[in-house]
User: Fold these one by one.
Assistant:
Number 1:
Amino acid sequence: MRFTSVEHVRLQEAAAEHGYKGESGFAADIVLAFISGRFTANLPLSEGRRRTHMFRAQVLRELNRIGVNVNQIARALNSDLTPPDIRHRLGELDRLLELIAEALREPAGSIKDQAA
């Protein structure tokens, strides 16, 4: 959890007032009490902060999904279980990309010379 320096000092003071040696145990007990319904409060989250939090959570979920997909693809391609037809098609694709790259490197005049 992140706090400004002023908030951190206030948290340390409140923890000490309630008999805690450090602020982490105090903060954890408050959060757990809130989650379990033993403690309720109107949180000071503004609509903007709430939306930012929701957006970040969605982005992290999507990034995780993308990472999982990339790992599954890499694992499949690197395993012996990848079907030969996929390996063959990937080889053909690689060869086609090389041909396209070679064609793009050739001067324009050489293509006309070959056609004549």
Number 2:
Amino acid sequence: MPTPVGRLTVLYDADCPLCVHLRHWLLRQRQLVPLDLVPAGSQEARRRFPELDHTATLREITVVGDRGQVYRETSAWIVCLWALADHRAKAHWLATPAGQPFARVTVLAAAKWREALKGPGREAGPCEDGHCEVPGPPD
């Protein structure tokens, strides 16, 4: 029987206003599974997960479980919700055949919004050299 997840690390784009907003939102939620939020492409992310494609983690949300599980895109969003007390039931539903289309559409919409916020020509963020700043909470 597989060991359950005890902790999750969310790799987020520190150069993306939407991603930073969601980071702060996740930190305000009651967590059933602790979440570590680490800037994607940062030295810390590279130290923790040397085997990951860190360029890819800047393009798509990536969540890593403490047992080596890697979740990307829609699965990553669902596992983030699953870790939260007030959203676990919704995560279970989103993982079903009935809920998966809603999860997929939400992730696609977020990706389009993220792309629009970042603008053209801003593919590489402040983490491109492996150094990222963790943004502070909004005022």
